[in-house]
Amino acid sequence: MKDLPARRLLLVHAHPDDESINNGATMALYAASGAQVTLVTCTLGEEGEVIPPDLAHLAPDREDRLGPHRVGELAAAMKELGVTDHRFLGGPGRFRDSGMMGVPQNRRRRAFWNTDVDDAVPYLVEIIRSMCPQVLVTYDPGGGYGHPDHIQAHRVAMRAAELAAERAFRRDLGAPHAIAKIYWNRMPRSVAEEGFARLRAAGGADFPGIAEIDDIPGVVDASEITTEIDGTAYAERKTAAMRAHATQIDVDGPFFALSNHLGQPIFATEYYQLVRGEPGAPPGEREHDLFAGVAA
Ligand SMILES: [Zn+2]
Where does Zn(2+) bind (predicted)? Predict the structure, then answer.
């Protein structure tokens, strides 16, 4: 194999900012430890709402320049996390943000949700076969919380992982590669509840209201969690990366809000469910390393 670092982690996300909210601490930790960390973002997040009033003119119903602006925010966030390899699926702007489920933007020609999975998959297969990740992180089948682009990112990631390993599939995209472990982003309900209790004790921080547990993606019973990554040492990096997504995220200490202005806790420990591959921890115990049990 080419000169690749021994450990290689691929993350597939829907919009700029999802990576920092879900995996910011994990990404910073593995980047700092010398692993190859590759982020693939499927859209530019063109349909996001804009929080800072002085940037409201970028919005899709005004100048429609939010996408290119968020490319810059993502680059700044990756600098905070120490991640140098971040790409857009098919190149920047190939697939467009589809907006929330049910809006007319879902049916636009370039909308990611309106794209045949088979048309998007080859771009990711090519990346998988060139960087040969042992670990893939993406969303669960519901996209964590039902956003169409998150559901589609899940479908494309899972299908690409399957086809990248298939000998007969598109040999022009590189030699077959099988990913050893696939994880979905998760959050144990008990941890989410504790986080909201902290936020209530802080009087809702600087925000006019508090979000609901159902607003947090990937919440499940703790028994479904296979892996927890303690990113405490990288909490400040994660917070700085979230702050870099200034059109989308408002940070106040250990709390943040999206464009609905409802406070949520920031979590330094990030949780995962192993869905493909062998667990690297004894039965009944959680892994503390995504690469546990993987031969370098
Ligand atoms: Zn998103």
Answer: 15, 18, 150
Cα→Cα distances 38→78, 97, 160, Å: 10, 21, 15
Q: What is the pLDDT of residues 188-228, one digit of tens each?
A: 999 999 999 999 999 998 899 999 998 899 999 999 999 99
Residue with the larger pLDDT of the pair 97 and 214: 97
- Residue 104 burial (CB < 10 Å; 0-12/13-18/19+)? exposed
3-state class percentages of the chain: helix first, strand second, coil last, to nearest 5: 40, 20, 45
Is 296's pLDDT higher than 70?
A: no
Binding residues: 15, 18, 150
Q: Are 270 and 227 in contact (CB under 8 A)?
A: no
Task: Report the binding-site residues for Zn(2+).
Answer: 15, 18, 150
Report the candidate in 8, 18, 9, 10 with the shortest Cα–Cα distance to residue 218: 18
Written as six digits, the tokens of 192 are 């989410």
What does the pLDDT look like over 128-167, one tens digit per residue?
999 999 999 999 999 998 999 999 999 999 999 999 999 9
Residue listed under structure tokens 């190149």: 91
Q: Ligand 1 centre from 126 Cα, in Å?
A: 23
Cα 180 to ligand 1 centroid, rounded to whole Å = 26
Calculate helix-pair angle for 18-32, 235-244, nearest 10 degrees.
140
pTM of the model: 0.97
